[in-house]
Amino acid sequence: MKTNKMNKHKIVLLLLLFVVNMISSQEIKEISKEWVSFTRTIPLKTKVKRKFIVEASAKVVEDNNMAWSGIWARVDNKDNKRGFFDNMQDRPIIISEWQSYIIEGTFDSNSEKLAFGGICSYSGQFFFDNFKVYLENDKGEFELVELSNADFEQEIKDNNVQHWSFGISKRENARVKGFDASSSDDKVSGKYSLLIEGKDIVPEYTSTIGSDEGTSPQIEAMISMLEDLKRRVENQVKYMSQYELDYLHDEDANRIGSLIMHLAAAEKYYQVLTFENRGFTEEEKKIWQVPFDLDQGGRDEIRGQDAQYYLDIYNAVRAKTIEELKKRDDAWFKKVQNRFGYSNHYCWFHVMEHQSSHLGQILFLKKRIPPEPEKIEFKQQIKN
User: Fold this and answer.
1) Is 59 helix (H, G, I), strand (E, B) or coil?
2) According to the UniProt entry, where is the signal peptide (predicted)?
3) How far apart are CA 381 and CA 366, in angstroms?
4) CB burial readout 38-56, b (16+ within 10 A) else e
5) Start-end of H helices in 256-335
């Protein structure tokens, strides 16, 4: 009997050690962003279209005129696509007095859950209190959903807000540097509110043309425009699945994965054209010609990779572009290269607007990708 008990204790101890190791291995990554959000979710279930309301009180004490906050709500559907979404970016909270804010939206039979919370941007003090969620019932009346710690009465320690989580994406477990959460006695009711402080937040990028001091003005402007468009492409594709990247709408369409490769290949071509006044070598053609042409070869060959594979190639090409452009000045932009009679400035303007053109194509294709079919597994029959 004693031996059996000892063995059971050993098994329990091993299981505990396993769980501890698993938890410790799931390190929370620290990242730099100019914003952070906090969230929680509730399940949704209905056979007909219904309404919901998310309500909360908030205020902002800003360090500069860039700081703003908002409450937000997002409906996640069963097909892994997003339904209703609103984060108040078009009507941000910027005033320093407590006010109540409301988001109204809808969900339907395809809806799986409602995610909601708050968002804070840039440096400042962001206060939140008294979150409430109402769901429409069969009678068309709004019922209050019971939410634990919706008023932040549980004191916050070590950035841990009970029943809420922080991050910037439902797909990424990360802590955003510079933002800290604590309890505040500046509240609407009860003992506490949630206070998120953003300190020394450096914008990831600004909505200006040109930002690199020491570079010629036209070169500086071109780099910032190229980078802004690449960032927009990345934001659209970085979370797409391999199925979505490979999806082909018809025999004349392009896969989104191949379009990213095409952007990299076209930029590579204009590198050798403007920086070296030549075309692709035979060795370079083996790497770049298929994605550059983007014809049937691109449809057949460029597939089967995840988003990061394509973005790594795109980023490597862009790093070379920026390195070489910074070696040059505005006078170089005016020079006409011999191959086609284009000025260097015109060539890089074309690379910039080429990104914009294919970004529009990616957006068009992405919105029309059907849900991935469920895989059917056939069980092997055992013959007698």
Assistant:
1) strand
2) none
3) 40
4) bbbeeebeeeeebebbbbb
5) 256-276, 282-293, 296-301, 307-325, 330-334
Q: What domains can you pick out in the chain, each with its CATH number?
A: 30-198 (2.60.120), 217-366 (1.20.120.450)
CA R_g for the chain: 26
Q: What is the DSSP letter of 78?
A: T
Kindly give, in sequence order, each residue whose CB lies less than 8 Å from that of residue 327, ignoring residues fewer than 6 positions away: none
DSSP 81: -
State pLDDT tens for residues 142-191: 999 999 999 999 999 999 999 999 876 555 556 788 899 999 999 999 99
CA–CA separation, 262 and 258 (whole Å): 6
Q: How far apart are the first and last CA of the chain?
A: 45
Looking at residue 166, its pLDDT comes to 86
Q: What CA–CA distance (Å, rounded) separates 303 from 308?
A: 13
Angle (CA) 183-202-131 rounded to 5° is: 30
Instruction: Give the Cα separation of 31 and 156 in Å (integer).
Output: 22
Q: Is 159:127 a contact under the CB 8 Å cutoff? A: no
CA 186 to chain centre: 32
How many Cβ atoms sit within 10 Å of the Cβ of residue 310? Answer: 26
Instruction: Give the whole-angstrom CA distance, residue 317 versus residue 268.
Output: 6
Q: Are 92 and 69 in contact (CB under 8 A)?
A: yes
Query: Is pTM beyond 0.85 here?
Result: no
